[in-house]
Design brief:
Blueprint (H helix, E strand, L loop, with lengths): L9 H20 L30 H12 L21 H13 L10 H17 L13 E5 L2 H20 L7 E6 L5 H9 L6 E4 L11 H13 L3 E8 L11 H10 L3 E5 L24 E5 H4 L7 E5 L2 H8 L9 H4 L19 H35 L4 E3 L7 E6 L6 H18 L5 E5 L2 E7 L7 H21 L2
The structure holds pyridoxal-5'-phosphate.
Pyridoxal-5'-phosphate binds next to α5.
């Protein structure tokens, strides 16, 4: 059969593109009509779609109709103003149009030569963001360091762990892999454990040190020092410390300065994960949570969480880019080119796991240019104000308690156990979570801290206003009233 396909016809792009933008704009206009947490059952889509792909083309309208009828019911609406689960994953008009341009150009920017603008814009935009965060100059691209956009914080911690591993192995010899030890608190995101698995760190040498309510779930420097000393006495090699600014469960902030000094005095790589809370640190009043970052070898924040940049965009900075390059570089014949061979350029393929990479800096650039620092600061402050408001609502209802001090825009709280029965309390809070989420009018998530089942209310969706927080609180109160009546 003759080829009739014109897959990149400019006029068709214009037509479908306009229709799709209209579809998405209408989605945002009506987003509150959907249950925020999808209420479908597992496997729901199999029954709605054919067993195999069509032989002949479908119409665009028909596909849009299917999206409306079959796909959207299975979507959990992360951009809904009633979304308070996990951490936010912001979209914005600026992020969206940046993403659109990236999809439109569809370059694969692994080496400078494959699209010089992609590499150079990424370096510039990450320097801008580093300055907004007041990162030490060593992290800027003018010196030995620099920033890179990874897909996720998980990839960020993996690549720096690999860099740190190879750096220490060059010093102590490859045979010492089994002796290498990694440290973090048990509140550290599970991505570190996954990175250790991939990096071949001995499973018993990933020390997740217990953090308790006595430090508000921050890692204790004394405990770290003791553990390192014990490991040194038995001939192990401490080489990597990971601290968090804003842990996933409860936004705990590890004391970077003292931890960093311990890492430095033991010749360890010090990584700081500020995936969520890093965004808040562009505000001068929250910047102190990053104090001590000058001791770090690498720092990471997810612009795709709370910084209006559509997923994915995880900003990673390192002080010594050569450590990354030494661990991750390959130089096959088919990629050789004059600029790379002459060491005149950054080739981001050597700072990450995959070869191919998208033009992600466009969307961050759009966000920074179209909004500006002051608006971004106000945006963050408003969410923190809403979280404080939610905290005040809880304080007025004696049936509930706030469990850990609120620092940023996450409130950790629970319904108090009846008659001090903790295990019944855990069950009750679990039931409350399910009851609220099954209404479809708000979506919250949970964690467990010191054996207590805790509800997490994370403010941070771009469309959330005070009325949404109030409505979610009303649902929580109503469901709590019913559950307490049932449990009498
Ligand atoms: N680190 C922290 C503190 C997080 O809260 C999260 C996710 O919520 C991650 C890392 C992992 O993020 P990613 O999905 O970008 O890998």
């Amino acid at each position: 059969m003759e080829n009739r396909l014109k897959p990149m016809d400019a006029e068709q792009l214009r037509e479908y593109g306009h229709k799709m933008v209209d579809f998405i704009a209408d989605y945002y206009k009506t987003i509150e009509n959907f249950p925020v947490l999808s209420q479908v059952e597992p496997g729901y889509l199999r029954n709605l779609l054919p067993d195999s792909a069509p032989n002949q083309p479908d119409s665009f309208q028909h596909v849009l109709d299917d999206i409306q009828a079959k796909i959207l019911p299975g979507v959990t609406h992360w951009q809904s103003p009633n979304y308070f689960a996990y951490y936010p994953s912001n979209s914005s008009v600026a992020g969206f149009v940046g993403e659109m341009l990236s999809a439109g150009l569809n370059i694969v920017g692994f080496s400078w030569i494959t699209s010089p603008a992609a590499t150079e814009l990424e370096m510039i935009v990450l320097d801008w963001l580093a300055k907004m965060l007041k990162l030490p100059e060593d992290f800027l691209s003018a010196g030995q360091g620099g920033g890179v956009i990874q897909g996720t914080a998980s990839e960020a911690v993996l690549v720096v762990l690999l860099a740190a591993r190879d750096k220490v192995l060059r010093r102590v010899g490859k045979d010492a892999l089994e002796k290498l030890v990694v440290y973090a608190s048990d509140q550290m995101h599970s991505s570190l454990q996954k990175a250790c698995q991939i990096a071949g760190i001995h499973p018993e040498n990933c020390r997740l040190l217990k953090a308790t309510s006595s430090t508000n779930y921050a890692l204790s420097p004394e405990f770290l020092s003791e553990t390192i000393s014990q490991d040194l006495t038995i001939g192990l090699i401490p080489f990597f410390l990971c601290a968090t600014v804003g842990t996933t469960s409860s936004t705990a902030v590890d004391p970077l300065l003292s931890l960093g000094k311990i890492a430095k005095s033991n010749g360890m790589w010090f990584h700081v994960d500020a995936a969520y809370a890093g965004s808040a640190c562009v505000c001068p009043e929250f910047r102190h949570y990053m104090d001590g970052v000058e001791e770090a070898d690498s720092f990471n924040m997810n612009a795709h969480k709370w910084f209006l940049t559509n997923f994915d965009c995880s900003a990673l900075w390192v002080k010594d880019r050569s450590a990354l390059v030494q661990a991750l570089s390959t130089n096959p014949e088919y990629l050789k080119n004059k600029a790379s061979q002459a060491n005149m350029v950054v080739d981001y393929k050597d700072w990450q796991v995959p070869l191919g990479r998208r033009f992600r800096s466009l969307k961050l650039w759009m966000v920074l240019r179209l909004y500006g620092l002051e608006n971004l600061q106000c945006y963050i402050r408003n969410h923190i104000k809403l979280a404080k408001h939610f905290e005040n609502l809880i304080a007025q209802d004696p049936r509930f308690e706030v469990v850990t001090p609120r620092i940023f825009s996450l409130v950790c709280f629970r319904l108090l156990p009846v008659r001090n029965d903790e295990s019944h309390g855990n069950k009750l809070n679990h039931q409350l979570l399910d009851a609220v989420n099954s209404t479809g009018s708000a979506f919250i998530s949970h964690t467990v801290l010191s054996g207590k089942y805790i509800l997490r209310f994370a403010v941070g969706a771009p469309l959330t206003e005070e009325k949404h927080v109030n409505a979610a609180w009303k649902v929580l109160q109503d469901k709590a009233t019913s559950l307490l009546a049932e449990s009498l």
